[in-house]
Prior knowledge:
By secondary structure, this protein is α/β, with parallel strands linked by helices.
Amino acid sequence: MKKILLLTFIIATTLLLFSCALWGGIETEARTDAVPDTESATRATETPTAEPTGNATEQPTESATETEAETEAETEAVTLPGPPEITYDVNAHLGSKRVLIDAGHGFADPGCTSDYLNGVYESQLTYEIATLLAQKLTEKGYEPVMLRGTDSFPTDAEIRAAVAELGMFSRDDVLLENNIFDAYERTLWGNVIHRRNPVALMISLHVNALPEAEYVRGTELYYTVDNGCAEPSAKLTAFIETKLKTAFPDTRLKTEGCVWNDSFIVTKWTEMPSVLVEMAYATNPEDAELLFDDAWRDKDTAALAEAIDSYIATRG
Ligand SMILES: [Zn+2]
């Protein structure tokens, strides 16, 4: 028993330590993925267990320091093969006006920070901005659903019970009763919410970090092509890209298809169209200032809400 407790503690601590790197370094890593072509997107839809393409390691990187960060992050990543078999209705999202908002991190997993955030962590920023996005979606007639609150989240026991009740597949070896609501747990819970009452999509908000290269700034968008909802996710991402480019024409904006990346659980294991938005860089002083700026927050969430509105209005 002691051994089990010790093991659990070690794993929980390890997950906690890695979480920042996971969402900082590894998320950054995916920027080097190739934009998926139609063929790979189609293939991924048909055979979700297709072999990884290896694109993530083939692309050129922006700097040597970034390469080091990526290598480190890759070796630390929690391995979660996937995505799961498609045992769900990939069209359940159609017709829904519910929008699932995942404010990245939270609780024992604070996400990233930097010297420019004055002691504030990513989890607080994502929650505040997610709340603003929820307000804007409500104004447009949608029903926002927050994946987590400020002071509560489903325990692993609750997630397990819901997963069992709904007959969903889950990885028991990954769901370790660490109760930190990490990426896998939040994704499972998002799927539970979706199965009980379908949502149109899930948008995951994050703040990026690259301490080794503070000059890097801007917004990045990710979805996973190796997912049953790859096609609508690509459409959703394209709408967000267009709206953000219009709102912030001078901001660096990268849109990449994440073909195979173990860190992107929230876009790979989700059972609905999903996109991950790295809103700005905590490690860049100008970006860090924006993250606290009310005018920027308002403009950013307005663009996201417009994109979601446009996507839902035009989808098949
Ligand atoms: Zn993050």
